[in-house]
Write a structure and sequence with these properties.
With about 220 residues, the protein is mostly helical. The chain folds into two domains: about 90 residues, Orthogonal Bundle (Rna Polymerase Sigma Factor, Chain: A), CATH 1.10.1740; about 110 residues, Arc Repressor Mutant, subunit A (Orthogonal Bundle), CATH 1.10.10.10. It is built from nine helices and no strands.
């Protein structure tokens, strides 16, 4: 059975179709979300094959659990929370990760951005502000080729982030989770979530600055 665009227009209708065992609805869900689920799984486990297994475990959990889905969150959020829990469990079992609450987030005095990027705090007009204005790259990335290169640079930069930063940035900026959702799924405080997100975003911005400076 093919799931039409009209049928997909209502999440409630999609959920009803999943609950009644509609194979077309489930196939549509798998086709649309499997790539994103795997990318998120790879933030927790380092092996491609293990990530595939985590995704399969997630889909099995969806099949067996859709009848108990209460709709207190969106279907997408519920789906990714299942994946996150499965990935954390598998990563811990395979000794590839640890609980986020046990992670060292780096020395307390480790700056996310080099201090020389800012004006001194005794500056008469702009204490603590950026020493030089941040560049706007919107005009540059209007070019299709540059935009693709930029996304590739960001992807590599994201993969190179420390695991804790990579997971938080992936959930917030790639998958659109709220801070509350990230804290609940990763069992971390809101303060730690903010620190990891800020450091991850700052590192990615530094990578982009270097990329565009070399490209000028």
């Amino acid at each position: 059975m093919t799931l039409t665009t009209e049928k997909r227009s209502s999440e409630a209708e999609l959920i009803d179709q999943l609950r009644t065992g509609d194979e077309g609805a489930f196939a549509w869900l798998v086709d649309n979300y499997s790539p994103s689920l795997k990318r998120l799984a790879l933030a927790f486990v380092s092996d491609d094959g293990v990530a595939d297994e985590v995704v399969q475990e997630t889909w099995l959990a969806v099949i067996t659990g859709i009848g108990r889905f209460e709709g207190r969150s969106s279907l997408k959020t519920w789906l990714f929370k299942i994946l996150t829990n499965r990935a954390k469990t598998r990563g811990a079992r395979d000794s590839r990760t640890v609980r986020f609450s046990d992670l060292e987030h780096g020395p307390a005095d480790e700056p996310a951005v080099s201090p020389d990027r800012f004006l001194p705090f005794d500056h008469p007009r702009y204490p603590g502000h950026w020493a030089t204005p941040l560049h706007s790259w919107s005009a540059l990335v209007e070019d299709g080729a540059i935009r693709r290169e930029t996304m590739d640079v960001l992807r590599r930069g994201l993969e190179a982030l420390p695991r804790s930063q990579r997971v938080v940035v992936t959930l917030r900026d790639v998958h659109g989770w709220t801070a509350h959702e990230v804290c609940a799924a990763l069992e971390m405080s809101e303060a730690n979530q903010r620190v990891l997100l800020h450091r991850g975003r700052s590192r990615l911005r530094s990578i982009l600055e270097k990329y565009f400076a070399e490209d000028v």
